[in-house]
Amino acid sequence: MYDIITIGSATQDVYVFSKKFRVLRDSRVITGEIECFAFGTKIELDDILFEVGGGATNTAFTFASQGLKTACLTKVGADGAGEEVKKVLKKAKISTDLVAVDSRRRTAHSVIFLAPNGERTILVYRGASHHFENKDVNFRKLGKTRWLYITSLGGNIDLIKKVVDFANKHKIKVAVNPGKMELKYGLKKLKPIFDKVDILLLNREEATEILRRSYGDDLGIIDDLSKLFHNISVVTEGEKGSLISDGQNKYRVKIRPLKSVDTTGAGDAYGSGFVAGYIKKRNIQYAVQLAGANAAGEVMTIGAKQGLVSKNPLELKKWIKLLNIRIVKY
Question: What structural domains does the chain harbor?
Answer without folding.
Answer: 2-11+54-108+129-329 (3.40.1190.20)
